[in-house]
Design brief:
Layout: H1 16-37, H2 42-63, H3 66-69, H4 80-96, H5 100-118, H6 138-146, H7 165-183, H8 189-210, H9 223-246, H10 254-260, H11 263-272, H12 275-287, H13 295-316
Helix pairs in contact: 1-4, 1-7, 1-9, 2-4, 4-7, 5-7, 7-9, 8-9, 12-13
Length: about 325
């Protein structure tokens, strides 16, 4: 469960990326309302949304190593951060220009439309390869045609490629719909939780049923992946919303707050700072005192602890990377 699946299906590890995008979506209705209260013009809000999307794309390119090569012709421009930036940006633009029912309709149109487009096989698909296969999908064909370089998946597609970014907009919109629901003042907290659980169950049933003809696939970000992982995201959010906001049990969550205040920081920092070396130097002697079966798990715990201490230092100094 701690590895990505090769193609169809999903493990727990595949839920992390879309959950981050979903949570970014949840936060937007709150920030949008705050900006409106501050009297910011629509033009200023547009500029901030687009600026954030562009910054995330640039950070993604830096994460991919462009500064170490300056090889722009063969650089990988698609990235996790770019998908978050583009998915969130377009979802935010849709959100501020539509009402709730229209947003739900747009999510449905995106998911159904993406399914219909995904039925089209790549023009250069090998004989016998279907449109949902690694070598036959239209997503891969467009990546090879549009992106300057397609270094992943044997050069066949980019898992954060062009066409598969469109359903990621739906993932962000699902988060925004959830954030909008939580902001409502005319609904009790318990009712909010119940409706979120109900929505999660419905999305899970629809996603699993649909997956019999449209496989769940993270690398293609299929519509069924959006629904199933969206269900997981909203159910997890409902659980922690109930524990933290409804039951007011908050003290235990402090370690996660430290991480949550600087998520992009730690994502980028691991690319430039050798936390593994620091962890090994500080803890390898202790880890070796335990059985070989336990050692890999203990190494992971120590690594996470070192990363957390780095974030805790930033937290104490009130240093936060905000995009």
């Amino acid at each position: 469960q701690m590895e990505h699946v090769e193609w169809h299906g999903f493990h727990h590890h595949d839920t992390i990326f879309p959950l981050f995008l979903f949570i970014a979506g949840i936060s937007f209705p709150f920030s949008y309302a705050k900006q409106q209260l501050q009297g910011k013009s629509r033009k200023d809000i547009y500029k901030k949304i687009i600026k954030r999307g562009i910054i995330l794309i640039i950070l993604g390119i830096i994460y991919n190593g462009i500064l170490s090569t300056f090889d722009f012709a063969h650089a990988r421009y698609a990235s996790v951060l770019a998908r978050i930036g583009l998915g969130w940006m377009f979802a935010a633009l849709i959100y501020i220009n539509s009402k709730t029912k229209a947003r739900i309709g747009i999510v449905a149109i995106i998911l159904i439309g993406y399914y219909l487009v995904s039925l089209i096989a790549s023009p250069d698909a090998p004989a016998g390869a279907d449109s949902f296969s690694h070598d036959g999908c239209l997503e891969g064909y467009l990546d090879r045609m549009i992106l300057p370089s397609c270094p992943l998946e044997g050069g066949m597609l980019d898992p954060e490629g062009v066409l598969s970014t469109i359903p990621a907009i739906a993932t962000a919109l699902l988060g925004m719909l959830t954030g909008e629901w939580v902001r409502r003042k005319d609904v009790t907290d318990n009712k909010k939780v119940l409706y979120m659980v109900a929505a999660g169950i419905i999305m899970l049933i629809v996603g699993l049923a649909w997956s019999t003809i449209f496989p769940i696939n993270k690398k293609l970000w299929t519509s069924t992946f959006v629904l199933v992982v969206g269900a997981y995201s909203i159910l997890m959010f409902a659980l922690f919303y109930y524990i933290i906001d409804v039951r007011n049990l908050r003290k235990w969550s402090f370690p996660f707050i430290v991480i949550g205040m600087n998520p992009i920081t730690i994502y980028l920092a691991q690319q430039f700072i050798n936390f593994q070396y620091t962890s090994n130097q500080l803890t390898n002697g202790l880890v070796r005192q335990f059985s070989e079966i336990l050692q890999p798990t203990l190494k992971d715990i120590c690594y996470i602890t070192v990363c957390w201490l780095f974030l805790y230092f930033l937290y104490r100094k009130r240093i936060f990377l905000k995009v």
